[in-house]
Amino acid sequence: MAHTAAVPDAASAVEAPVLTPVSLKTLAPWALFTVVLSSVALFFVGAEQSAQLHEFLHDGRHLLGFPCH
Description:
Blueprint: H1 24-46, H2 51-56, H3 58-64
């Protein structure tokens, strides 16, 4: 019995998905959310001085270059 390699036919070929551009109107709320969330995170890492939070974020402060002691 001869062994033949399986060759896909044209009917079973998968077409590449069509990429549609994302409008700025759709992207703007997500960009704003990211900026606000990043700003809040940066505040808590860099400026918040409560004892428990300071110890929790201590290494992150040094990693970002904030002096803390």
